[in-house]
Amino acid sequence: MPSPGFFRQAGLFVVPHFLEPQLAACLCREMEIAPRQKGLVVRAGATASLDENIRKVEDSVPPQEIGDSLKERLLGLLPDLEKHFEVALAGCESPAYLIYRAGDFYKPHTDTGHSKGESDRTRRRRVSVVIFLNRESLEPAEGTYGQGRLTFYGLLEGPQWERCGLALSPEPGLLIAFPSDKLHEVTPVSHGQRFTVAAWFYAPDAE
Questions:
Q1: Is 187 inside a domain boundary?
Q2: What is the CA angle 5-143-74, rounded to 5?
Q3: Where would you tag: which of 109, 118, 136, 189 has the fewest CB atoms within 10 A of its CB?
Q4: At what angle do helices 21-33 and 64-75 cross, to 10 degrees?
Q5: Any idea what the CATH number is for the domain that residue 171 is in?
Q6: Residue 207, in any domain of the structure
Q7: Does 66 score more than 80 pLDDT?
Q8: Domain range holding 100?
Q9: Number of domains forming the structure of the chain
Q10: DSSP letters of 110-166?
Q11: Are the C-beta atoms of 95 and 199 separated by less than 8 Å?
């Protein structure tokens, strides 16, 4: 799999140690004991609904103070993200704490849309962020997961690359940011539990 450096060279925004290992491990523990709900799918012109043929994941709801602290930390990236992606950003949605268990996945999708039926929140998304909290392992081991890879499409120029998925090789604490209209997926998890945080930076109202 390509290293994080490859994705940086492809134009994405990568911070290898955005979270310290101890903090990443603490978030995993908090997410595991917090209430959970099944992840929904947002479609243009419709309210969010459950469709486990497209997305199968659990949203964990840790204590609010944890979410507030991480959101503040993410907001500190706003100037760098604006400069990197050459886009105006007004703020960041509250982070989503996602747990992918064995068999869970998210089929290829984008995080934003421009149709009239799209919700204002989704329509204004410009930059998506994923933070990895635990590591991948080929063999089952405590605190790890298998497969469940964040895979991007269309990163390289040329029609031959449009359907070529490039999977990221992550490490705990790694943050990657990418344009919200970039096609991506999470491949099925083979074993263990995959802990990640997702967030979305949005454009000003005037756009």
A1: yes
A2: 50
A3: 109
A4: 140
A5: 2.60.120.620
A6: no
A7: yes
A8: 4-202
A9: 1
A10: -S---STTS-HHHHTEEEEEEEE-SEE-SS--TTEEEE--EEESS-SSSGGGTT--E
A11: yes
